Amino acid sequence: MAATQANPQAPFEIKPSTFSGQTQFLNYIGGQWVPAKSGKTFQSLNPADPSDVIGVFPAAGPDDVNAAVAAAKTAYETWRLTPAPVRGEILFRAGQILIERKEELAREMTREMGKVLAEARGDVQEVIDMTFYAAGEGRRLFGQTVPSELQNKFAMSVRAPLGVVGLITPWNFPMAIPSWKLMPALICGNTCVLKPASDTPLLSHRLVEILEEAGIPKGVVNLVYGSGREVGEPLMAHKDVTLISFTGSTDVGRRVNEACAPTFKRVSLEMGGKNAILIMDDANLDLAVDGVLWGAFGTSGQRCTAASRVIVHKAVHAQVRDKLVKRIGELKLGYGLNPDVKVGPVINEASLKKILEYIEIGKAEGATLLAGGQRDTQAGPGWFVQPTLFDNVKSTMRVAQEEIFGPVTALIPVNDFKEAIEVANNIQFGLSTAIYTKNVNQAFTALRDLESGLCYVNAPTIGAEVHLPFGGMKDTGNGHRDAGSTSLDVFSEWKSLYVDYSDKLQRAQIDH
Ligand code: UN1
Fold it and tell me: Structure pTM?
């Protein structure tokens, strides 16, 4: 494929014709690929070169949502009775297909979303990991058996599926996050309506296509493309949908929570982050700088887990600053299919504008701009922002408090460990925090006191693995966790079962 020999001198030669797949895509409802009932469509563009159209997708509306929910409701009657190990076999097959198609999917992801190829491969690998993890749960889904307080009585708990679930997913992990939701939902016996972000519809198409090939029955997974207003809101309001699982911004998450309240839907929210890397005076500074570069500028800073604050002990501030400035200057920006590119574009023009606005806000607040700070038109015709470093940032500044979701990070000098923890926690969010130190007492104190759902020692804020809970405290979430066995808690509910084989009335709390 031409894309493998991407030429750094001409990185934008890769066009749709390079890919054999169709360019006109359809919703997937009740096992059929169908257009939006309105006939409306939208385009998906390559953020590295917006003249490169990835495909044309249906812009669905409430009628399409109703059809998808109805199909899911019908399919639920058989899917809930399909033994979980059999559901798992379908997921194992999907995992195998994903392995075979990994490289092709990663290349399509770089083209549609912009993340560099190594990271796109990582995204697909996360799907593979989650698919096998959930498939294996088909033979576990553990409940409890406990002794009864009465003779000849059996007591246990089992997980029950919820019914039809709505999954609303973002563009920054175009396959991994849909898989975090789809795979646990399916293994628990739910049927699904997936509404992916409109910036990355192709990769959701691929995921559903692979599930179809693996043998998922008709109606068990439904895919409806379109806007939050036209697809998301009808899904949230629908009386036959029992749960909405959402990953996205805190502002939208709040609206999701409100929209689901009238019908008492279960709501699982994964929202914003403003994650910090703490660098202590005893840290391995080169390791810490590697961590900052990866944590802040990987995925162009467009991860919920991105390190957008670097809280640095004053004794090593100057050294960290100088090393960072040097290393940022070496980061190559461009089209992520080029092997030497380390930072890709941001997702779209609105995002580019928002990031550039935040850079102006930082300057106006008095932060010192040390690197980057501008759109990069040399890197290509797309939405490129230079990796940007602010210094002398105060914890109260907007650039230290608000989620920017771009390649911008802020150095915040502090006097000691105690202040570092205070500054780290002085934030509305609580997703991921990292500390670089060789002092085991400091490391464990930080692990205890940091108010975040993910904590790392001597590793950056990004890099969560699928078999541990993923999610955040405070305004990052509402107490649920994606991934790990905790995702089963999102997608099932508990039934406590008692079987009395004594052949007489036994009264709990009274007859023992
Ligand atoms: C996200 O940014 O929304 O830990 C997900 C990480 C990835 C997942 C990030 N495994 O950065």
Answer: 0.95
